[in-house]
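so my prof wants the structure for this chain in the tokens format not the other one, which i didnt know existed until like an hour ago. anyway here's the sequence
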Amino acid sequence: MQYATIAASFGIGALVLVFLIKRSNKRRRLALIEARRAKYGPSFTMDETDSTHIQGRQTEDLNDVEVVAYDERGLVRNQNVQFLRLLVSDLFEDEELDETEEEQQRAALVEERQAWIEENEDQLDQHAALVEEEEIGSGVSVMEIIAPEDDDIEERLEREGGKGGQVQVSLAWDDYNDLDMHVFCPSGERIYFNNKISECGGELDVDMNVRPVSNNAVENVVWTGNAPVGKYKIGVHFYKHHRKRRSKRTVTFRLRVLVHGKSRDYSGTITAGNAMQMVTSFTLKGPEPSSEEDEHSDQNL
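here's what i got, hopefully its the right format
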């Protein structure tokens, strides 16, 4: 009887502990959300109720038949990289350079990437168009809870001078490789390293690791003013593998979509030589027309 009482006490204690941990995580998550709203909210020129943020599907939303079809399309996308000859040679053994050598190498790499773009831009556009057909992220998971002490994307952006805005997409990874973010806009434009400022107001203001200078890199695309309504898609491209300090050919990345102070975080992996990876999509809908506008519209029909 005594043992049963002790066991029951332990069981109750474990349940209480689990409850307290969940409540603590929820509080930390809410505190993080409030901090983001306090930071970015003052820059908004639209009220949150003026625009609806509709999240796209992820791979876990697919049924068995859809998974098979998606995987088959994935093979086609990977073969497309080979067919279009979009592979970039591995570079950079682990070497120590002084400040002058670092700057010389960085300048040389900027020129090299520009030459690569001029040679392969049409092929990259073709590949991006193939990836853009997808509506869902491949091998990507939604990060429901991130402890504030483990969340350093904003710290990285502040370090690099990244801007905040109504719509903001940030990519982070933890090695010296060069990943690139591609944001497909409702206007049909694509924001990436060769089109950093779009006509629809978006801007790639942080672009890292052309030269492998950081193992806690970040990139940032932002609309500081009103972002256009419509569908947005976000892809990640493994541009170049830098063999510096044993950076691997498969990279785990995190991606944050921040819309009107509300955020959603994703985690995924991408391997050098594979297709650009669609991470997620979302849709911004404009304000609903007022009743007077509805009546006016009806009269004009």
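also thought this was worth mentioning. The chain has two domains: 2-42, 44-285.
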